[in-house]
């Protein structure tokens, strides 16, 4: 099951982008409710490796389940 970036928790650090082995993490348009850049995971490409979860310094910004209700997808 793919992981989810919680849009309103993400702070746009983007460590996950470089760490992702399948390039399934993309920058979202505009800012989130915190006023920061944010990223989203393409569920159809994610291989559920968990590397993004390991490298993200923002607590609870990435969760190990597919939750489209918590992640904006452009």
UniProtKB/TrEMBL annotation:
Protein's UniProt keywords contain Nucleotidyltransferase: no
InterPro entries: 4Fe4S_Fe-S-bd, 4Fe4S_Fe_S_CS, 7Fe_ferredoxin
Coiled-coil ranges per UniProt: none
Cofactor entry: [4Fe-4S] cluster
Domain 4Fe-4S ferredoxin-type: 1-30, 37-67
Protein keywords: 4Fe-4S, Electron transport, Iron, Iron-sulfur, Metal-binding, Transport
A Pfam family reported for this protein in Swiss-Prot or TrEMBL: Fer4_7
Main function: Ferredoxins are iron-sulfur proteins that transfer electrons in a wide variety of metabolic reactions.
Protein's name in the database: Ferredoxin
Organism from which the protein derives: Anabaena subtropica FACHB-260
């Amino acid at each position: 099951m793919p992981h989810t970036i919680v849009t309103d928790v993400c702070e746009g650090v983007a460590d996950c982008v470089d760490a992702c082995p399948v390039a399934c993490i993309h920058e979202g348009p505009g800012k989130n409710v915190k006023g920061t850049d944010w990223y989203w995971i393409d569920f159809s490409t994610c291989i559920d490796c968990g590397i993004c979860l390991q490298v993200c310094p923002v607590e609870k910004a990435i969760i190990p389940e597919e939750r489209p209700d918590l992640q904006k997808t452009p």
